[in-house]
Design goal:
Elements: H1 6-16, H2 28-34, E1 38-39, H3 45-53, H4 59-68, E2 72-76, E3 82-86, H5 90-102
């Protein structure tokens, strides 16, 4: 049996999170889907997160997906904080976290 190589694990995680140079893409919706949402409690946090994960990020990319195309939305869910999720993920996140969020956490 082959042992677990820490460097391989780190490379895998960096690629999966679109943080390795060779895994950066410009599809904002795909990134949000792949990382299971962007933390968005701070107004600049999702933009910085996408800046780190894309090749050529511009602020309007996220704004367009949120407010024009509406492929993404904001919801208070995990840990009772604001997240940006794909429109397909929002119902699941709502159902999974509504009791916690409803208590004001």
């Amino acid at each position: 049996m082959k042992g677990i190589n820490l460097n391989e694990i780190n490379r895998f995680v960096l690629r999966k999170q679109h943080l390795a140079d060779d895994s950066r893409i410009d599809d904002v919706v795909q990134i949000v889907r792949d990382v299971c949402g962007l933390h968005a409690t701070g107004s600049t946090v999702p933009y910085l997160s996408l800046f780190a994960r894309t090749r050529n990020f511009v602020k309007e990319s996220l704004d367009e997906e949120l407010y024009v195309k509406r492929n993404l939305g904001k919801i208070r869910c995990m840990r009772g904080t604001l997240y940006i999720l794909t429109k397909e993920m929002i119902p699941t996140a709502y159902v999974a976290t509504r009791k916690i969020v409803g208590k004001g956490f």
